[in-house]
């Protein structure tokens, strides 16, 4: 069985922002983690191209919607490729194969008796592509969207509705399962939304041309969210010859996890499973709603002029620094703040000092005392201190990754690096080496610390892939080794193996005012 995971399909109204980069980096770390565990992974990402928001953006740029989408979709692809994001599928919802899949899906849902015509009245936010829960008789108040801080638009039109209310009990059952919505802190908001009573939602528009036509209903196009969620299914079928829904189970569906931001949890944990139930398709196993990033304590927004461009951040500080900060510093389910100073301090302290110095000092000592090679440990030793530290950390790290607790996984790596630094300070091999009787003890100490560095080099790969390569190369280890099953076992470092000249694996970074 494959581990299938998805990022949201990003709107192409603008270039990639830090929010989309955050989710994509997290999914990349998770994909790398499962691949190292020898599991087949299908990592799906892509873009959500239809709807009024995109139509209007294209218009304002004097472009045809398709040309506009082609440009931004390419920017997303380029950014992910340049950041070594190991996605397996990139789905575009404007593709022809997606359109036929949406038609097939609609016919299934219609055959289940879950489609009806109705009138939709309410306040609509084009930015969110969503009706807001505001009383329709507030019509003269001209309310604003709390997210986009722009005036909502009043709509009163004939739409097709999906009969969500038919799924009240089934969805209640589903969201009751603790394993379905993660983290725990997000479950209650969804549970209370569901228990307040599910209302049918409109799935078509009559005034939006840039969308997929609804078969049998001339003039209607699908509501962008209806079409976008189905992009996950199209993503599974991308390499398959058959683009039919009946082939999904052979092509990685259901998803093991949908990773999304907390603002789109309702779509994924309520509307989407009901749509799948109606179409007789399997449900995703889990939906993880991560928190929102702010910058220096403030919401990021174009109007505030404080949007952090992921590309310039990565160009200035490197991919490893950005990945490490986002995954190590911010609890994945909670909101997090991007602060310049904290960013620099975290990277310098964890990567340059704790890990970088450990590797540098241990390889230098080994080279100096053991003919530029790794030392030869006594093989009959018992109770090796660093071995038990590493084993405990590896166990915790794996448990944390499975829970998408990247912060805890990263902290396990720092724990063993700090313990190894302390161990060196306490053991003082530089004093012991002066005494010939203690030579074997020094060989053991250095072997144990270098072995810890080797384990760190492997464990850090999903989080900071380039840094992992640099660490392993300093230990003369082939970084292309994929499988962890044997490599995370203690004692795999070859003894008397030539070591290259030590080079810092992570340069300290300095604050740059302009990001
Ligand atoms: N197109 C829809 C998703 C459809 S999925 C079938 C969409 N796209 S989006 O581009 O607007 O948002 C993509 C993701 O970015 C969402 O998960 C959203 O939560 C996330 N973020 C947007 N701003 C963010 C932050 N400031 N911080 C973290 N993530 C945020 O929604």
Structure described in brief:
By secondary structure, the chain is α/β, with parallel strands linked by helices. It has 17 helices and 16 strands.
Instruction: Return the structural class.
Output: alpha/beta
Q: Whole-number radius of gyration?
A: 26 Å
Q: What small-molecule ligands were found?
A: 5'-O-[(L-methionyl)-sulphamoyl]adenosine
CATH superfamily heading of the largest domain: HUPs
Q: What percent of residues are in strands?
A: 5-15%
CATH class of the largest domain: Alpha Beta
CATH topology label of the largest domain: Rossmann fold
Poorly predicted regions are none
Total beta-strand segments? 16
Helical coverage, percent range = 40-55%
Total of helices: 17
Give the N-to-C terminal Cα separation: 43 Å
Write down the overall mean pLDDT.
Answer: 94
- Sheet with most strands: 7 strands, parallel
The total domain count is 2
Coarse morphology: elongated
Under the CATH scheme, the architecture of the largest domain is: 3-Layer(aba) Sandwich
Structure overview:
It is a single chain. This protein is α/β, with parallel strands linked by helices and 515 residues long. The protein has 17 helices and 16 strands. It has helices at residues 18-36, 52-60, 65-82, 96-111, 168-176, 187-195, 224-229, 231-237, 265-278, 310-317, 319-329, 340-369, 385-402, 406-427, 429-432, 439-459, 465-474, and strands spanning 3-6, 10-11, 41-48, 89-92, 115-125, 130-132, 153-162, 181-182, 201-202, 204-205, 221-222, 257-261, 287-290, 293-295, 298-299, 336-338. α11 (319-329) packs across α14 (406-427) and α13 (385-402) packs parallel to α16. The chain starts with a strand and ends in a 41-residue tail after the last helix. It binds 5'-O-[(L-methionyl)-sulphamoyl]adenosine.
